[in-house]
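Example 3.2
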Amino acid sequence: MNKEKIDKIFELQVENASNIRKTTYKDRIEKIKSIIGWIYSNRDAIKDALRKDFSKPDIEVDITEIWVTINFANDIIKNLKRWMAPKKVPSSLAVLFSKSYVEYYPKGVCLMIAPWNYPFQLCIAPLIYSIAAGNCCIIKPSEATPHTSKLVFNMIEALFNQDEIAVIEGDAEEAKLLLDKPFNHIFFTGSDAIGKKVVEASSQHLSSFTLELGGKSPVVIDRKYSLSNIVDKLITTKFINLGQSCIAPDYIIVHSDDFDALVQLLTKRIKLIYGDSFDDQKQSNSLARIVNNSHFNRLADMIDNKDCKILYGGEYDKNERFVSPTIVDMRSNKTEISSQEIFGPIIPIVSYSSDEDLRYLLKEVESPLALYIFSNKKIFINKVKALTSSGAICINDIAVHFLNHNLPFGGVMSSGSGRYHGFSGFKEFSN
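Structure, written as tokens:
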């Protein structure tokens, strides 16, 4: 798309922002309901697009792309009137006889740059919060998932005029042209490397921004905790989307006494769920594919590293961009597996044998999007919490915090900035 077209759409939205600002909660709810209706009517088309982009299983599309989005939308519909109402707050002694309120107004014209790993949900979920707050919006879907990008374009074109919501398809060139514009707010989901460029661009116009990034989210397991209570949670959250999830468990920290037992349990369950052999796993209808050759090659290089000690799996098929569920012994290696976010079906495991070992490992944790602690002891849980900083913490579970729209979702430092979901999503797109 050329610069002139982007300029025109942006100018139309700037001119129209004051009209959209005046919309009532009923107006905004009707727009969100129209999105829900479109999703239900085009459910098969959504599945087809994601199947073509990276063989995403239909049940995963239902749960992680369609159901999650509709769940957020229904929560907005239920609560928007209350969210938009002025909130009376106490007056301080200096203005004791005054009345004080907090009121929420739209930020104006927003830009959303969406990722490829959940390309439908992470376009539409931020959009419905922007609509709830009364903004105009331009969406830039990921070029890595072209079929879903086109589907989102068709959806928005069918439901909205370009002077309110528009989709700009394209690659890094279009993203740069958009980031040059003085948006009132930028919502970005993706890597920390691109996130830094978004912050740099936003600084030119002092635009506010939300960054939903990622990081190496660890699972920390207390000694002698029941491993059978963990394994299914690990497998479900690690291999959904073939590991291409920002809140997937990135690696496991387990006591040395439990290391072998955990590996055995994981191996047994992987075989039971996905098949004994590589060919069985490749034919499983529960495993997606890596989104493109660049990401596939990155994962293959991790596995092929001479210092990578594979305990299970480690096979891949370049033609299908498939990587088998893989377990790696990370106790003594310092490969890229230990330093970069994996974003694939590889589970590295490291062990500790003393409080000092654990303290050292926890100090190496760098502001992940989520931290998962498994323990029945408050002293252990509090120790892990005290030594780490993360966007969220789940105790004795993995990733479920994402599903509670009453919890603000977001990162800290390298894993992001800002929060959304529920009322926090409405506030994020409001002044």
